[in-house]
Amino acid sequence: MIITIDGPAAAGKGTLAGVLAKTYHLAYFDTGMVYRAVGLDMYLNNDSPENENKAEEYALNLTFSKMNQLAQNPDFRSAIGGKYASIVSAHPKVRAALLKMQQNFALNPTFADGTPAQGAIYDGRDTGTVVCPNADIKFFITASTEVRAMRRFKEFEAKGIETDFQTVLNDMKARDERDASRATAPMKPAVDAIIFDTSTLSIDEVLAFALKIIDKKIKNS
Ligand code: DC
Predict the structure, then answer these.
(1) What's the pTM?
(2) Please, which of 39, 77, 128, 171 could form a disulfide with 190 given CB 3.0 to 4.6 Å?
């Protein structure tokens, strides 16, 4: 079974994906990691993320082990890491170079320790529209920009990262705009996606709905 969860940053995709992966014993692919890895690699090597051909070279050389290694760097999840990821992800050549790596995971899904799984949960921006258009179930999780910026601000605070709410909100707006307006694979719900707004629903309510939908699908398959 393949389940996709798309939506903007800090909407609750990761939380939902984590619980569903555990509940149904599915492998988990956080696809934002491929763009974060390319972006961070460029940042660490003082290359401009605006340079599409250079970014493509990094993307073509990306492997799961390199991605997991880069994920250990504190800047992988920092504001600068998010900004670089968002810029490189807007390049069509980068998206094309990283597509097979993401799609192949669905053919042989594996858990973090390398053992095979019966299926996978994907989370990202285009996993239901481009990466896995034939997924069994597609969710799109969203929330207002202010709610998502407040969540991200609190995450930074908890990690001891110095910032202020307005900066986080401005960054969030800029990233949403880049993710939704790019020409290739813009962030949008698949036509057959089930949409949840977590500014009006708690994550527990979303989880309860999602479990119902998945259980029904399993029963009918
Ligand atoms: O989910 P995230 O914040 O880790 O994603 C980082 C960036 O990667 C985000 O700004 C958009 C991009 N991204 C994408 O374009 N397509 C995906 N499937 C996942 C992430």
Answers:
(1) 0.94
(2) 128
